Amino acid sequence: MARIEILAxxxxxxxxxxxxxxxxxxxxxxxxxxxxxTGAGNFDAASLCEAVRFCHARGVRVHVAMNxxxxxxxxxxxxxxxxxxxxxxxxxxxxxxMAVADLIRRIxxxxxxxxxxxxxxxxxxxxxxxxxxGFSRVILARELSLKEIETITKxxxxxxxxxxxxxxCMSMSGQCYMSAFLGGRSGNRGSCAGPCRLPFDANPLPxxxxxxxxxxxxxxNSAIDQLxxxxxIGVASAKIEGRLRTPEYVAAAVNACLAGRDxxxxxxxxxxxxFSRSGFTSGYxxxxxxxxxxxxxxxxxxxxxxxxxxxxxxxxxxxRSRVPVEMxxxxxxxxxxxxxxxxxGNRGLAYGETEPQPARNDPSDSLRRSLSKTGGTPFxxxxxxxxxxxxxxxxxxxxxxxxxxxxLDSLLKKREVLHPWKVxxxxxxxxxxxTWPPKPQLWARFETWDQVPRQALExxxxxxxxxxxxxxxxxxxxxxxxxxxxxxxxxxxxxxxDTVRRVAQVREQGFGGFEANNIAHLRICRGxxxxxxxxxxxxxxxxxxxxxxxGLSALLVLPEVKDSExxxxxxxxxxxxxxxGALIYGHMPLMLTRACPxxxxxxxxxxxxxxxxxxxxxKKFPVRCKGGVRTIYNPVPLYMGDKPGVxxxxxxxxxxxxxxxxxxxxxxxxxxxxxxxxxDFTRGLYFKGTN
Length: 691
Description:
TIM Barrel, eight-stranded parallel beta barrel
């Protein structure tokens, strides 16, 4: 059985040394400008090459995170970044945006691609689709149980990677827009401000009273004591989260993971002191998702970390010997020669200048002991051969030590040589501003059929209606051709099988198609009419074109995209334009969560499947529970209905969630008449964009 890889985060040069010296099998680090931790100490072309030299010399793999969404004006720089990663000889690229994945495939086709957890892959169908697209590994969503991980790992045919230690986002990665919409800092762009760590109170509070509890803050994940189980089911890599943390934290986590992998005890208190939010949780892996998963970082936690730092630094003060080498010492009257050979066949040579002296006894055992003292280097002595011509010969210990150092230094330099990936010439087409209709089509999305008002069914109403697939049976037969069935963004547990079953039931019933909101849907609905929804995070023309090439007939642009970037998104298929759309009304779904914030105040048996979170400014955020996940909505709706034709798209979507039928009808009337919105609203990010 293959050993599970210990994969450590790197946010700078000191953290790189801490991860490697502590014994990590692999590291992941960010390429500047295109990774999901812009606040970390990221790497450019030159420093990446040095990092790869350092790691590869020590047998450590390097995974480069390029896992943000990308905008049109960044595509040329992105192509340059891909070439730089290929030149470094790094072992893999972690990507979220299909533009990144496509450019890697075209520019450096042999460079392995890992599907980022930002892709929200959490089902077997999703992992299988990634495998079909040539990805060599999928980094699974953090929210999965051990059984769910096993099903995917044993069935997908490519490597899986799981988070085993570090911070837990409240929302599914890739499906969180809270930081973007509340503060203009996009988590999908690597600039998350961490609003979930601020007060959000699930207790019923009167109007005007601010929330004080932290009911969106999860404890750090730690499943190190279950590494043997993950290894047994075939998981390839155990990932430590934390590129924004400290070298000491990384050293503590790597040290614990190495012990845990071997079934040995580790100092859990030391690990907790390195960083925790009043303890750890393994609720997702255990399948015990409840209020015990929540916690905050207290001042007592911070004080304990400060006290523990000196002890933690000792964990990476000396380099761990890990690369096995064979040694051969040849001594003759003319001098001495030491050859060291690594498992890949690289050789380091050193020649001595000390004239050997005749020895009374065979010094071989003493010489082997001296040669085996490789501590503080990356190398671990294996078989040591001693050959003496006309001997035995005596060599002073200082001469043997110098031979060993020189030979190992020589080998280290050979192992530092970069091995770039082959690069193909690829020229990106020039960005072209699209044209769009002065009055885009109106589409309307509803949470339930009972919410659909008469205005939506009239001839002058929306061109398309969208409803969750669970509502399909309620749609009258004569309206089905107008209806697109929305597939769920999250399909945990039995939900994927349920979705597959529902698609099979309705595929011949005359519906207008299906809306994909997760990469798995492209496989589930292969050959069926399919549009792309908000969950695909389309932000640039290249990614849009990839989805069009995969058969999608319309694409909703992510509402984080500014209008000046949206204007370049104009995919086509078989010479025909593929329509693009934008949200023009709706309470933005800010978070999609498997953990439930309402469980901080009551259990599921005493829940109406809905609630409210009150933030520190007394704003009320609606929470709705459906299909085993919770959606947290922006309290203020986005509204663009009074500005038809301003956004460069072919259709606008009115996205109804918490509204009554009467409210939905009134808003549709306002949009059709291009009237101003009555009440508080936001233009979202269409004119100001995100960081």
